[in-house]
Design brief:
The protein is mostly helical and 422 residues long. It has helices at residues 3-7, 12-40, 44-53, 56-69, 74-88, 90-97, 103-131, 136-168, 172-189, 205-217, 220-249, 255-283, 285-304, 309-337, 343-371, 376-392, 398-407.
């Protein structure tokens, strides 16, 4: 597909810019938040509470949130969510300025930011296929560019900037993220309006939510695509919960070095996002997804056994590359095969499974580090990832992918697709 084809959908450039700006702010906070928490406590379980809080909205409101997005104007949902998140970040910023910041406050704000993220991410996932006409190749390339920008900003540029801004004061990185949300909201408001989803009779919100969840659980391919990030989040949150402590105590990395360590993962993520389409073409999307999952597990195993910052950074770079490719191929496939009127619910159900698993990973990481050793959560994460690869390989193989794409031709985009052959 040529560059002109990517420019044809009106508004994609603004959507890309909005998410890029917001991702830069997220990267700043991603590096700064655990370091801010470390200034308040060194208890691994307390750090786990902050990490897990941002994922809990998906546990409580995930499926219902998707049903609401399938009823609401998706563009409006996005800019309102970003506006609210910008305002929320003012709370810990003021608290930090007044020196009254606490772990409970960080956890509450993380929970509310996660709730805003639930609505924004679900609406954005459902909006993009409408914007691009549900063209599979166009969706894959668009997601590659979105994922590449997100990785570059949230992982490559944001973490070092977060470490530098934190040196200026605990409130500074929080204010920077708030500004990024505000700018994103302004850009999203200028996007072209899309028709609202067609109402489904007089079904209740709960009935519509159940229909979306059922659509995922009864389709082997969609279920496999959902299980991969669910199990992956248990593993990655176990790693993330203790990574700052592991880097400081075992690798001898200081505040600035920690930001660079996260940047190594993002560098790999950029490469993975860039080559995702090529992997899909040469291996088939199903085989490519299985290969990237296996690489993630092996890379975390390498991180667990690392004894110096360079080995750890290399392992994270490899893991980032595999994750970057996965996060292009998986969502693009889902957006191409799911009917438009179900997109919000299917996306939120899949994301809910992933995000509900994340608190388990956070607390598992904190518990294993407390009960055993700081490396134990990393070894456990590697074992989970490799086990998940073996279990889901047949659910997302090339045969299922090709059957689903044939069933979801553009003329049938809004008709329920058949179950892929088993």
């Amino acid at each position: 597909m040529n560059a002109r084809a990517m420019k044809s959908p009106t508004g994609f450039g603004r959507l890309w810019t909005a998410q890029t700006v917001s991702s830069l702010g997220d990267g700043v906070t991603h590096a700064a938040l655990p370091l801010i928490a470390l200034t308040l406590t060194r208890d691994p379980m307390a750090l786990a509470v902050v990490t897990a809080a941002g994922t809990l909205p998906w546990l409580f409101f995930g499926i219902l949130g998707g049903a609401l997005v399938d009823r609401w104007d998706r563009r409006r949902t996005m800019w309102v969510a970003d506006t609210v998140r910008a305002a929320l970040l003012a709370i810990p910023a003021v608290a930090a300025g007044l020196d009254v910041l606490s772990i409970p406050l960080l956890a509450i704000v993380a929970f509310l930011l996660g709730l805003g993220g639930l609505f924004f991410d679900t609406a954005a996932t459902a909006y993009l296929p409408d914007l691009l006409g549900r063209d599979p190749a166009l969706l894959e390339r668009a997601n590659s560019r979105l994922r590449g920008a997100q990785t570059a900003m949230s992982g490559f540029a944001g973490p070092p900037a977060g470490s530098v801004l934190l040196a200026l004061g605990r409130a500074v990185p929080l204010v920077a993220d708030a500004v990024s949300f505000a700018l994103s909201a302004l850009l999203v408001r200028t996007l072209p309006a899309m028709p609202r989803p067609v109402p489904e009779g007089r079904e209740s919100l709960l009935a519509q939510a159940r229909a979306g969840a059922s659509y995922v659980f009864r389709n082997q391919l969609l279920l496999g695509l959902a299980l991969r990030p669910a199990v992956g989040n248990i593993a990655f949150l176990a790693v993330e919960t203790v990574l700052a402590l592991f880097a400081h105590d075992r690798l001898g990395i200081d505040t600035y070095g920690f930001g660079l360590l996260l940047t190594a993962e993002a560098t790999g993520g950029l490469l993975g996002a860039a080559i995702a389409s090529r992997l899909g073409r040469h291996l088939g999307t199903g085989t490519a997804l299985t290969c990237t999952a296996a690489v993630e597990g092996l890379a975390i195993l390498g991180l667990a056994s690392s004894s110096n910052p360079y080995a750890a950074g290399s392992a994270l770079a490899v893991c980032g590359a595999a994750m970057g490719a996965t996060m292009v191929l998986g969502p693009s496939l889902r957006q191409a095969i799911v009917p438009g009127h179900l997109m919000g619910r299917v996306a939120s159900t899949s994301r809910m499974l992933a995000m509900c698993a994340a608190p388990m990973g956070a607390f598992l990481g904190g518990w294993l580090a407390t009960a055993y050793d700081i490396r134990t959560p990393l070894y456990a994460a590697a074992a989970l990832l490799l086990t998940m690869t073996a279990v889901t390989a047949s659910m997302t193989n090339n045969r299922r992918v090709e059957a689903a794409l044939r069933a979801a031709s553009p003329a049938e985009a809004d008709a329920p697709a058949d179950e892929p052959a088993r």
